[in-house]
Write a structure and sequence with these properties.
This protein is mostly beta strands. It has two helices and eight strands; from the N terminus they run βαββββαβββ. The strands form two sheets. A four-stranded mixed sheet has the order 1-4-3-2, covered by helices on one side. A four-stranded mixed sheet has the order 5-8-7-6, with helices on one face.
Length: 144
């Protein structure tokens, strides 16, 4: 596959990430009320509701109600999203809020220095068991 210069790419950025939920009220409360994502639009269809919630920088979370669970994939090696990472101002403070609310912490707050990535991170499970990462970039002047 040939690499192209970013200036000539047809992709201009990320618009949204979609999450299907079997518990609409619980997921909407978590993402909109608990995490504070702002409602920016909605859609609907015969079988589902859909809300777009602003995650910042013009990227939205598309929260979709799944009324009938999808069947398990027949193949075990299908590609899948691993986690949703939010850029945050204060990982430790938000992890404390997550912990106080009773969500399962899967990786305590820690600092990482991996190649060009320098950040304070933490992982937890959302209301539907989805894996969420909090990612606070450590500015170059603060790196030790």
């Amino acid at each position: 596959m040939k690499s192209k210069n970013h200036d000539t790419s047809l992709i201009t950025g990320m618009h949204h990430i979609s999450l299907e939920t079997t518990n609409w009220d619980q997921s909407l409360q978590f993402y909109q009320d608990f995490l504070g994502l702002k409602f920016v639009g909605k859609g609907s269809g015969e079988k589902r509701r859909l809300h777009l919630l602003d995650m910042g920088d013009g990227v939205c979370l598309e929260l979709t109600e799944l009324k009938d669970p999808r069947p398990e994939p027949e193949q075990e090696h299908n590609a899948r999203w691993v986690h949703l990472a939010f850029r945050v101002r204060d990982t430790a403070a938000l992890m404390d809020k997550v912990r106080d609310a009773g969500y399962e912490i899967t990786l305590e707050t820690k600092t990482i220095h991996s190649g060009d990535l320098h950040a304070m991170i933490g992982f937890f499970k959302g209301p539907q068991g989805e894996l969420i990462e909090l990612f606070q970039v450590i500015p170059a002047e603060a790196q030790v």
